[in-house]
Amino acid sequence: MGDRITRTLVEQAWDELEKTIMYYNGRPIGTIAARDPDTAALNYDQCFIRDFFPSALLFLIEGRPDIVRHFLEETLKLQPKTGQLECLKPSRGLLPASFKIATLIGGEYLKPDFGDHAIGRVAPADAGLWWVLLLRAYVISTQDTALVQRSDFQEGIRLVLELCLVTRFDMYPMVLVPDGASMIDRRMGLYGHPLDIQSLFYAALRTSLELLLPIPENQTILQAARNRLGPLQQHLRDNYWIDTDRLNVIYRFQVEEYGEEALNQFNIYSDSIPFYRLAKWVPEAGGYLAGNLGPSQLDCRFFAIGNLMAIIAGLTNEHQSHWILNLIELRWADLVGNMPMKLCYPALEDRDWQIVTGADPKNRPWSYHNGGSWPVLLWMLTAAARKMNRAELGHHAIAIAERRLLQDQWPEYYDGPDARLIGKEARKYQTWTIAGYLLAKEFIANPDHLKMITFEAQEAEDWQDPARTPGSYSPIAPEYQGSKS
Ligand code: GLC
User: Fold this and answer.
1) Protein residue with least CA distance to atom 9, ligand 1
2) So what's the pLDDT on residue 8?
3) Ligand 1: distance of its center to the CA of 176 in Å?
4) Non-local CB neighbours of 126 within 8 Å, separated by 6+ positions
5) Binding site membership of 50 for ligand 1 (Cβ less than 6 Å)
6) Residues 398-440: pLDDT tens digits?
Protein backbone atom coordinates (compact mmCIF):
# COMPACT_ATOMS: atom_id res chain seq x y z
CA MET A 1 0.00 0.00 0.00
CA GLY A 2 1.42 3.34 -1.04
CA ASP A 3 2.37 6.03 1.45
CA ARG A 4 -0.39 8.33 0.26
CA ILE A 5 -3.10 5.73 0.79
CA THR A 6 -1.75 4.92 4.25
CA ARG A 7 -1.80 8.63 5.08
CA THR A 8 -5.43 8.86 4.05
CA LEU A 9 -6.20 5.85 6.17
CA VAL A 10 -4.54 7.40 9.20
CA GLU A 11 -6.28 10.73 8.64
CA GLN A 12 -9.63 9.04 8.33
CA ALA A 13 -8.99 7.04 11.47
CA TRP A 14 -8.20 10.21 13.42
CA ASP A 15 -11.37 11.83 12.06
CA GLU A 16 -13.42 8.85 13.18
CA LEU A 17 -11.78 8.82 16.61
CA GLU A 18 -12.60 12.48 17.06
CA LYS A 19 -16.28 11.75 16.49
CA THR A 20 -16.35 9.23 19.34
CA ILE A 21 -15.44 11.73 22.06
CA MET A 22 -18.07 12.12 24.78
CA TYR A 23 -18.60 15.48 26.50
CA TYR A 24 -19.62 15.83 30.13
CA ASN A 25 -20.61 19.29 31.27
CA GLY A 26 -19.04 20.61 28.12
CA ARG A 27 -15.66 18.92 28.67
CA PRO A 28 -14.32 15.81 26.89
CA ILE A 29 -14.34 12.81 29.21
CA GLY A 30 -13.91 9.63 27.14
CA THR A 31 -14.89 7.82 23.95
CA ILE A 32 -18.01 5.78 23.21
CA ALA A 33 -17.49 2.12 22.36
CA ALA A 34 -18.93 2.22 18.83
CA ARG A 35 -20.71 4.54 16.42
CA ASP A 36 -22.48 2.00 14.26
CA PRO A 37 -25.49 3.68 12.64
CA ASP A 38 -27.10 0.36 11.63
CA THR A 39 -27.12 -1.67 14.84
CA ALA A 40 -28.95 -1.18 18.13
CA ALA A 41 -26.60 0.62 20.50
CA LEU A 42 -27.31 -1.54 23.61
CA ASN A 43 -24.44 -0.31 25.78
CA TYR A 44 -22.05 0.50 22.94
CA ASP A 45 -22.97 4.16 23.33
CA GLN A 46 -21.20 4.14 26.71
CA CYS A 47 -17.57 4.74 27.59
CA PHE A 48 -15.91 1.48 28.68
CA ILE A 49 -12.83 1.84 30.85
CA ARG A 50 -10.98 -0.96 29.02
CA ASP A 51 -11.99 0.36 25.58
CA PHE A 52 -10.86 3.87 26.41
CA PHE A 53 -7.30 2.76 27.22
CA PRO A 54 -5.89 2.84 23.65
CA SER A 55 -7.79 6.05 22.84
CA ALA A 56 -6.38 7.61 26.00
CA LEU A 57 -2.81 6.71 25.07
CA LEU A 58 -3.37 8.36 21.70
CA PHE A 59 -4.67 11.54 23.32
CA LEU A 60 -1.57 11.58 25.56
CA ILE A 61 0.67 11.11 22.53
CA GLU A 62 -1.18 13.86 20.71
CA GLY A 63 -0.65 16.29 23.59
CA ARG A 64 -4.29 16.29 24.74
CA PRO A 65 -3.94 15.05 28.32
CA ASP A 66 -6.98 16.99 29.55
CA ILE A 67 -9.38 14.32 28.28
CA VAL A 68 -7.45 11.65 30.11
CA ARG A 69 -7.17 13.66 33.30
CA HIS A 70 -10.88 14.42 33.27
CA PHE A 71 -11.64 10.73 32.68
CA LEU A 72 -9.38 9.67 35.56
CA GLU A 73 -10.86 12.22 37.95
CA GLU A 74 -14.50 11.50 37.15
CA THR A 75 -14.23 7.70 37.07
CA LEU A 76 -12.44 7.83 40.41
CA LYS A 77 -15.53 9.48 41.87
CA LEU A 78 -17.59 6.46 40.76
CA GLN A 79 -15.46 4.04 42.79
CA PRO A 80 -17.23 2.98 46.01
CA LYS A 81 -15.10 3.77 49.06
CA THR A 82 -17.14 1.79 51.57
CA GLY A 83 -19.47 -1.19 51.58
CA GLN A 84 -17.45 -4.42 51.47
CA LEU A 85 -20.29 -6.39 53.03
CA GLU A 86 -23.27 -5.22 51.04
CA CYS A 87 -24.00 -7.89 48.45
CA LEU A 88 -26.23 -5.87 46.15
CA LYS A 89 -23.91 -2.89 45.91
CA PRO A 90 -20.58 -2.78 44.10
CA SER A 91 -17.67 -3.70 46.36
CA ARG A 92 -15.34 -1.11 47.76
CA GLY A 93 -12.61 -0.40 45.22
CA LEU A 94 -14.46 -1.70 42.15
CA LEU A 95 -14.44 0.47 39.03
CA PRO A 96 -17.31 0.17 36.58
CA ALA A 97 -17.00 -1.58 33.22
CA SER A 98 -18.61 1.45 31.59
CA PHE A 99 -20.53 4.64 32.22
CA LYS A 100 -22.93 6.84 30.35
CA ILE A 101 -23.85 10.48 30.63
CA ALA A 102 -27.38 10.83 31.93
CA THR A 103 -29.42 13.93 32.54
CA LEU A 104 -31.50 14.96 35.50
CA ILE A 105 -33.33 18.20 36.09
CA GLY A 106 -30.26 19.63 37.81
CA GLY A 107 -27.95 18.79 34.90
CA GLU A 108 -25.75 15.92 33.77
CA TYR A 109 -24.41 13.05 35.84
CA LEU A 110 -22.43 9.87 35.18
CA LYS A 111 -24.33 6.59 35.42
CA PRO A 112 -21.91 3.68 35.95
CA ASP A 113 -22.45 0.02 35.09
CA PHE A 114 -20.65 -2.21 37.59
CA GLY A 115 -22.26 -5.30 36.11
CA ASP A 116 -25.68 -4.46 37.48
CA HIS A 117 -26.95 -3.78 33.93
CA ALA A 118 -24.49 -5.71 31.77
CA ILE A 119 -25.57 -8.79 29.81
CA GLY A 120 -25.00 -11.74 32.14
CA ARG A 121 -24.58 -9.34 35.08
CA VAL A 122 -20.80 -9.68 34.89
CA ALA A 123 -18.69 -7.39 37.08
CA PRO A 124 -15.35 -6.25 35.63
CA ALA A 125 -12.19 -7.35 37.45
CA ASP A 126 -10.10 -5.67 34.78
CA ALA A 127 -11.53 -2.13 34.84
CA GLY A 128 -9.65 -1.03 37.98
CA LEU A 129 -6.44 -2.58 36.70
CA TRP A 130 -6.68 -0.73 33.36
CA TRP A 131 -7.48 2.44 35.31
CA VAL A 132 -4.30 2.12 37.39
CA LEU A 133 -2.23 1.45 34.27
CA LEU A 134 -3.72 4.49 32.56
CA LEU A 135 -2.92 6.66 35.56
CA ARG A 136 0.72 5.57 35.30
CA ALA A 137 0.77 6.31 31.56
CA TYR A 138 -0.72 9.75 32.27
CA VAL A 139 1.94 10.55 34.88
CA ILE A 140 4.78 9.33 32.67
CA SER A 141 3.52 11.26 29.69
CA THR A 142 2.67 14.54 31.43
CA GLN A 143 5.01 14.50 34.45
CA ASP A 144 1.97 15.78 36.34
CA THR A 145 2.94 14.16 39.64
CA ALA A 146 0.62 16.40 41.63
CA LEU A 147 -2.42 14.48 40.42
CA VAL A 148 -1.28 11.04 41.54
CA GLN A 149 -0.09 12.40 44.88
CA ARG A 150 -3.53 13.73 45.72
CA SER A 151 -5.02 11.79 48.63
CA ASP A 152 -8.12 10.77 46.64
CA PHE A 153 -5.88 9.24 43.94
CA GLN A 154 -3.67 7.50 46.50
CA GLU A 155 -6.80 6.05 48.06
CA GLY A 156 -8.17 5.04 44.65
CA ILE A 157 -5.04 3.04 43.76
CA ARG A 158 -4.99 1.48 47.22
CA LEU A 159 -8.60 0.34 46.98
CA VAL A 160 -8.19 -1.17 43.50
CA LEU A 161 -5.27 -3.24 44.78
CA GLU A 162 -6.91 -4.05 48.08
CA LEU A 163 -9.86 -5.61 46.28
CA CYS A 164 -7.45 -7.98 44.50
CA LEU A 165 -5.26 -8.68 47.53
CA VAL A 166 -7.89 -9.32 50.20
CA THR A 167 -8.39 -12.67 51.88
CA ARG A 168 -9.89 -15.26 49.59
CA PHE A 169 -10.76 -18.93 49.23
CA ASP A 170 -7.51 -20.22 47.81
CA MET A 171 -3.81 -20.60 48.53
CA TYR A 172 -2.36 -19.25 45.29
CA PRO A 173 -0.67 -15.94 44.50
CA MET A 174 -3.03 -15.40 41.55
CA VAL A 175 -6.16 -13.32 41.86
CA LEU A 176 -9.39 -15.34 41.97
CA VAL A 177 -12.17 -14.10 39.67
CA PRO A 178 -15.50 -15.33 38.31
CA ASP A 179 -16.19 -16.09 34.63
CA GLY A 180 -16.77 -13.10 32.36
CA ALA A 181 -14.78 -10.69 34.54
CA SER A 182 -12.60 -9.21 31.79
CA MET A 183 -12.62 -8.13 28.17
CA ILE A 184 -14.11 -11.59 27.58
CA ASP A 185 -17.29 -10.65 29.39
CA ARG A 186 -19.26 -13.82 28.71
CA ARG A 187 -19.02 -17.38 29.90
CA MET A 188 -15.91 -18.92 28.36
CA GLY A 189 -14.58 -21.23 31.07
CA LEU A 190 -12.39 -18.50 32.51
CA TYR A 191 -13.47 -18.63 36.14
CA GLY A 192 -10.70 -19.03 38.67
CA HIS A 193 -7.32 -17.73 37.58
CA PRO A 194 -7.51 -16.66 33.93
CA LEU A 195 -4.25 -15.45 32.47
CA ASP A 196 -5.64 -12.22 30.99
CA ILE A 197 -6.46 -10.92 34.47
CA GLN A 198 -3.24 -12.21 36.05
CA SER A 199 -1.08 -10.27 33.58
CA LEU A 200 -3.02 -7.07 34.26
CA PHE A 201 -2.92 -7.72 38.01
CA TYR A 202 0.85 -8.14 37.85
CA ALA A 203 1.26 -4.87 35.92
CA ALA A 204 -1.01 -3.04 38.37
CA LEU A 205 0.96 -4.36 41.36
CA ARG A 206 4.15 -3.07 39.77
CA THR A 207 2.44 0.25 39.13
CA SER A 208 1.43 0.52 42.78
CA LEU A 209 5.10 0.33 43.81
CA GLU A 210 5.77 3.29 41.55
CA LEU A 211 2.75 5.42 42.34
CA LEU A 212 1.96 4.86 46.02
CA LEU A 213 3.71 7.27 48.34
CA PRO A 214 5.49 5.81 51.38
CA ILE A 215 2.94 7.31 53.76
CA PRO A 216 1.53 5.36 56.73
CA GLU A 217 -1.86 4.59 55.14
CA ASN A 218 -0.12 2.95 52.15
CA GLN A 219 2.28 0.73 54.11
CA THR A 220 0.09 -2.36 54.29
CA ILE A 221 -0.68 -2.38 50.57
CA LEU A 222 2.91 -1.63 49.60
CA GLN A 223 4.12 -4.54 51.71
CA ALA A 224 1.39 -6.82 50.37
CA ALA A 225 2.31 -5.87 46.79
CA ARG A 226 5.98 -6.67 47.45
CA ASN A 227 5.04 -9.99 49.03
CA ARG A 228 2.77 -10.91 46.13
CA LEU A 229 4.90 -9.93 43.14
CA GLY A 230 7.66 -12.54 43.54
CA PRO A 231 5.42 -15.60 44.04
CA LEU A 232 2.95 -14.40 41.37
CA GLN A 233 5.71 -13.93 38.81
CA GLN A 234 7.37 -17.25 39.62
CA HIS A 235 4.11 -19.11 39.58
CA LEU A 236 3.06 -17.77 36.19
CA ARG A 237 6.50 -18.26 34.66
CA ASP A 238 6.74 -21.84 35.94
CA ASN A 239 3.26 -23.30 36.12
CA TYR A 240 1.44 -21.53 33.25
CA TRP A 241 4.32 -21.95 30.82
CA ILE A 242 3.91 -24.38 27.92
CA ASP A 243 6.68 -25.38 25.55
CA THR A 244 7.94 -28.72 24.31
CA ASP A 245 10.03 -29.44 27.43
CA ARG A 246 7.22 -28.51 29.74
CA LEU A 247 4.75 -30.64 27.76
CA ASN A 248 7.07 -33.58 28.28
CA VAL A 249 7.10 -32.96 32.03
CA ILE A 250 3.32 -32.63 32.27
CA TYR A 251 2.78 -35.68 30.03
CA ARG A 252 4.56 -37.88 32.55
CA PHE A 253 3.15 -36.25 35.71
CA GLN A 254 2.36 -38.48 38.68
CA VAL A 255 -1.10 -37.81 40.10
CA GLU A 256 -2.73 -37.83 43.55
CA GLU A 257 0.44 -36.50 45.20
CA TYR A 258 0.05 -35.10 48.69
CA GLY A 259 2.18 -32.66 50.63
CA GLU A 260 4.85 -30.04 50.10
CA GLU A 261 7.03 -32.04 47.73
CA ALA A 262 4.30 -32.63 45.12
CA LEU A 263 5.48 -31.87 41.60
CA ASN A 264 2.03 -31.99 40.07
CA GLN A 265 0.73 -29.35 42.48
CA PHE A 266 -2.60 -28.94 40.72
CA ASN A 267 -3.20 -32.65 40.20
CA ILE A 268 -3.48 -32.29 36.43
CA TYR A 269 -4.60 -35.49 34.71
CA SER A 270 -2.76 -36.18 31.51
CA ASP A 271 -5.91 -37.22 29.68
CA SER A 272 -7.34 -33.71 30.01
CA ILE A 273 -4.66 -32.25 27.74
CA PRO A 274 -4.57 -32.66 23.93
CA PHE A 275 -0.88 -33.60 23.92
CA TYR A 276 -0.63 -34.83 20.34
CA ARG A 277 -2.20 -31.68 18.95
CA LEU A 278 -0.13 -29.43 21.17
CA ALA A 279 3.17 -31.22 20.60
CA LYS A 280 2.64 -30.69 16.88
CA TRP A 281 1.48 -27.09 17.19
CA VAL A 282 4.03 -25.64 19.62
CA PRO A 283 7.22 -24.91 17.65
CA GLU A 284 10.52 -26.18 18.97
CA ALA A 285 11.67 -22.66 19.84
CA GLY A 286 8.29 -21.34 20.89
CA GLY A 287 5.98 -21.34 23.89
CA TYR A 288 3.26 -19.41 25.69
CA LEU A 289 1.44 -19.00 28.95
CA ALA A 290 -1.64 -21.20 29.37
CA GLY A 291 -5.07 -19.61 29.57
CA ASN A 292 -6.04 -20.72 33.08
CA LEU A 293 -4.83 -22.89 35.92
CA GLY A 294 -6.64 -24.43 38.86
CA PRO A 295 -7.36 -27.75 40.53
CA SER A 296 -7.07 -30.49 37.88
CA GLN A 297 -7.30 -27.83 35.21
CA LEU A 298 -4.65 -26.54 32.84
CA ASP A 299 -6.50 -24.70 30.11
CA CYS A 300 -4.09 -24.88 27.17
CA ARG A 301 -5.89 -22.40 24.94
CA PHE A 302 -3.75 -19.45 23.84
CA PHE A 303 -5.12 -16.08 25.01
CA ALA A 304 -3.67 -13.03 23.29
CA ILE A 305 -4.21 -10.35 25.93
CA GLY A 306 -2.60 -12.34 28.74
CA ASN A 307 0.42 -13.31 26.65
CA LEU A 308 0.98 -9.90 25.05
CA MET A 309 0.49 -8.01 28.31
CA ALA A 310 2.90 -10.46 30.00
CA ILE A 311 5.60 -9.34 27.57
CA ILE A 312 4.70 -5.67 27.95
CA ALA A 313 4.64 -5.88 31.78
CA GLY A 314 7.88 -7.87 32.05
CA LEU A 315 5.98 -10.76 33.62
CA THR A 316 7.66 -13.26 31.31
CA ASN A 317 11.44 -13.36 31.25
CA GLU A 318 13.41 -12.31 28.17
CA HIS A 319 13.59 -15.85 26.82
CA GLN A 320 9.89 -16.53 27.32
CA SER A 321 8.90 -13.21 25.73
CA HIS A 322 10.87 -14.13 22.62
CA TRP A 323 9.39 -17.60 22.52
CA ILE A 324 5.86 -16.20 22.67
CA LEU A 325 6.70 -13.96 19.72
CA ASN A 326 8.30 -16.94 17.94
CA LEU A 327 5.06 -18.83 18.40
CA ILE A 328 3.06 -15.97 16.90
CA GLU A 329 5.49 -15.71 14.00
CA LEU A 330 5.62 -19.44 13.28
CA ARG A 331 1.89 -20.00 13.76
CA TRP A 332 0.95 -16.80 11.97
CA ALA A 333 -1.80 -18.41 9.88
CA ASP A 334 -3.56 -19.63 13.03
CA LEU A 335 -3.04 -16.61 15.28
CA VAL A 336 -3.02 -13.71 12.81
CA GLY A 337 -4.36 -14.97 9.50
CA ASN A 338 -6.19 -12.21 7.62
CA MET A 339 -6.70 -9.90 10.60
CA PRO A 340 -4.51 -9.46 13.67
CA MET A 341 -5.32 -11.23 15.83
CA LYS A 342 -7.12 -14.11 17.53
CA LEU A 343 -8.35 -13.32 21.00
CA CYS A 344 -8.20 -16.99 21.88
CA TYR A 345 -6.98 -20.07 20.00
CA PRO A 346 -8.31 -22.61 19.21
CA ALA A 347 -12.08 -22.19 19.39
CA LEU A 348 -14.21 -24.41 21.60
CA GLU A 349 -16.29 -26.61 19.32
CA ASP A 350 -19.19 -29.06 19.48
CA ARG A 351 -19.90 -30.45 22.94
CA ASP A 352 -17.14 -28.30 24.53
CA TRP A 353 -18.79 -25.17 23.12
CA GLN A 354 -22.20 -26.31 24.44
CA ILE A 355 -20.98 -27.10 27.93
CA VAL A 356 -18.39 -24.40 28.48
CA THR A 357 -20.14 -21.39 26.90
CA GLY A 358 -23.68 -22.54 27.72
CA ALA A 359 -24.29 -22.91 23.95
CA ASP A 360 -23.81 -19.15 23.50
CA PRO A 361 -24.71 -18.38 19.85
CA LYS A 362 -22.63 -15.19 19.83
CA ASN A 363 -19.62 -17.23 20.93
CA ARG A 364 -20.13 -20.10 18.52
CA PRO A 365 -16.89 -21.64 17.21
CA TRP A 366 -14.55 -19.15 15.50
CA SER A 367 -16.66 -16.14 16.32
CA TYR A 368 -16.42 -13.23 18.78
CA HIS A 369 -14.52 -14.25 21.94
CA ASN A 370 -14.41 -17.90 20.91
CA GLY A 371 -11.72 -17.84 18.24
CA GLY A 372 -12.74 -14.54 16.63
CA SER A 373 -10.08 -11.99 15.61
CA TRP A 374 -9.98 -8.52 17.18
CA PRO A 375 -8.18 -5.66 15.42
CA VAL A 376 -7.84 -3.84 18.77
CA LEU A 377 -5.13 -6.38 19.60
CA LEU A 378 -2.93 -4.77 16.96
CA TRP A 379 -1.63 -2.24 19.48
CA MET A 380 -0.68 -4.90 22.01
CA LEU A 381 0.97 -7.09 19.40
CA THR A 382 2.93 -4.15 18.01
CA ALA A 383 3.94 -2.93 21.49
CA ALA A 384 5.11 -6.39 22.57
CA ALA A 385 7.03 -6.92 19.31
CA ARG A 386 8.56 -3.44 19.41
CA LYS A 387 9.60 -3.87 23.04
CA MET A 388 11.50 -7.04 22.13
CA ASN A 389 13.13 -5.33 19.10
CA ARG A 390 11.05 -7.32 16.66
CA ALA A 391 9.23 -4.46 15.02
CA GLU A 392 8.93 -6.39 11.77
CA LEU A 393 6.12 -8.44 13.33
CA GLY A 394 4.24 -5.22 14.05
CA HIS A 395 4.87 -3.89 10.53
CA HIS A 396 3.60 -7.08 8.99
CA ALA A 397 0.48 -7.17 11.18
CA ILE A 398 -0.33 -3.52 10.44
CA ALA A 399 0.04 -4.09 6.70
CA ILE A 400 -2.45 -6.96 6.89
CA ALA A 401 -4.95 -4.90 8.88
CA GLU A 402 -4.64 -1.97 6.48
CA ARG A 403 -5.92 -4.11 3.62
CA ARG A 404 -9.35 -4.37 5.23
CA LEU A 405 -10.12 -2.02 8.10
CA LEU A 406 -11.26 1.07 6.23
CA GLN A 407 -13.14 -0.78 3.53
CA ASP A 408 -14.88 -2.90 6.17
CA GLN A 409 -15.69 0.22 8.26
CA TRP A 410 -13.56 -0.60 11.31
CA PRO A 411 -15.35 -3.74 12.57
CA GLU A 412 -15.24 -4.83 16.17
CA TYR A 413 -14.10 -8.36 15.27
CA TYR A 414 -13.78 -10.90 12.45
CA ASP A 415 -14.98 -14.50 12.26
CA GLY A 416 -13.58 -17.76 10.92
CA PRO A 417 -10.42 -19.77 11.51
CA ASP A 418 -8.57 -17.46 9.11
CA ALA A 419 -10.45 -14.26 9.99
CA ARG A 420 -11.88 -13.69 6.52
CA LEU A 421 -15.41 -12.78 7.58
CA ILE A 422 -16.57 -9.58 9.24
CA GLY A 423 -17.93 -10.68 12.63
CA LYS A 424 -21.54 -11.80 12.39
CA GLU A 425 -22.68 -9.38 15.08
CA ALA A 426 -19.67 -7.07 14.99
CA ARG A 427 -20.30 -3.38 15.42
CA LYS A 428 -18.91 -1.15 12.66
CA TYR A 429 -16.97 1.99 13.58
CA GLN A 430 -15.81 0.30 16.78
CA THR A 431 -13.69 2.85 18.60
CA TRP A 432 -10.96 0.60 19.95
CA THR A 433 -10.49 -0.93 16.48
CA ILE A 434 -9.73 2.57 15.20
CA ALA A 435 -7.59 3.46 18.22
CA GLY A 436 -5.78 0.10 18.16
CA TYR A 437 -4.71 0.70 14.58
CA LEU A 438 -3.58 4.29 15.19
CA LEU A 439 -1.71 3.36 18.36
CA ALA A 440 0.14 0.54 16.62
CA LYS A 441 1.25 3.06 13.98
CA GLU A 442 2.45 5.44 16.71
CA PHE A 443 4.49 2.72 18.46
CA ILE A 444 6.21 1.90 15.19
CA ALA A 445 6.85 5.54 14.33
CA ASN A 446 8.17 6.46 17.78
CA PRO A 447 9.07 3.60 20.13
CA ASP A 448 9.70 6.14 22.89
CA HIS A 449 5.93 6.13 23.49
CA LEU A 450 6.26 2.57 24.75
CA LYS A 451 7.62 3.79 28.06
CA MET A 452 4.07 4.76 29.05
CA ILE A 453 3.09 1.10 29.24
CA THR A 454 6.15 -1.15 29.47
CA PHE A 455 8.09 -2.54 32.45
CA GLU A 456 11.44 -4.28 32.46
CA ALA A 457 11.64 -7.94 33.55
CA GLN A 458 12.91 -8.51 37.12
CA GLU A 459 14.06 -11.55 39.06
CA ALA A 460 11.38 -12.90 41.41
CA GLU A 461 13.50 -12.54 44.55
CA ASP A 462 14.12 -8.84 43.84
CA TRP A 463 10.60 -7.84 44.76
CA GLN A 464 11.24 -8.00 48.48
CA ASP A 465 14.09 -5.54 48.23
CA PRO A 466 13.05 -1.95 47.46
CA ALA A 467 16.61 -1.02 46.55
CA ARG A 468 16.66 -3.62 43.78
CA THR A 469 13.27 -2.79 42.29
CA PRO A 470 13.24 0.77 41.15
CA GLY A 471 10.25 1.47 38.95
CA SER A 472 11.06 2.14 35.32
CA TYR A 473 9.73 5.55 36.25
CA SER A 474 9.26 6.92 39.73
CA PRO A 475 6.96 9.89 40.11
CA ILE A 476 7.59 10.05 43.85
CA ALA A 477 8.25 13.63 44.89
CA PRO A 478 11.90 14.51 45.73
CA GLU A 479 11.04 14.81 49.44
CA TYR A 480 10.17 11.12 49.43
CA GLN A 481 13.16 9.90 47.44
CA GLY A 482 15.35 7.62 49.50
CA SER A 483 12.54 6.83 51.92
CA LYS A 484 10.68 4.65 49.44
CA SER A 485 9.24 1.79 51.48
C1 GLC B 1 -18.16 -6.28 24.37
C2 GLC B 1 -16.76 -6.83 24.62
C3 GLC B 1 -16.08 -6.03 25.71
C4 GLC B 1 -16.06 -4.56 25.31
C5 GLC B 1 -17.47 -4.06 24.99
C6 GLC B 1 -17.47 -2.66 24.42
O7 GLC B 1 -18.95 -6.45 25.49
O8 GLC B 1 -16.83 -8.18 24.98
O9 GLC B 1 -14.78 -6.50 25.91
O10 GLC B 1 -15.49 -3.81 26.34
O11 GLC B 1 -18.06 -4.90 24.04
O12 GLC B 1 -16.72 -2.59 23.26
Assistant:
1) 183
2) 87
3) 21
4) 50, 181, 182, 183, 196, 197, 200
5) yes
6) 999 999 999 999 999 999 999 999 999 999 999 999 999 999 9
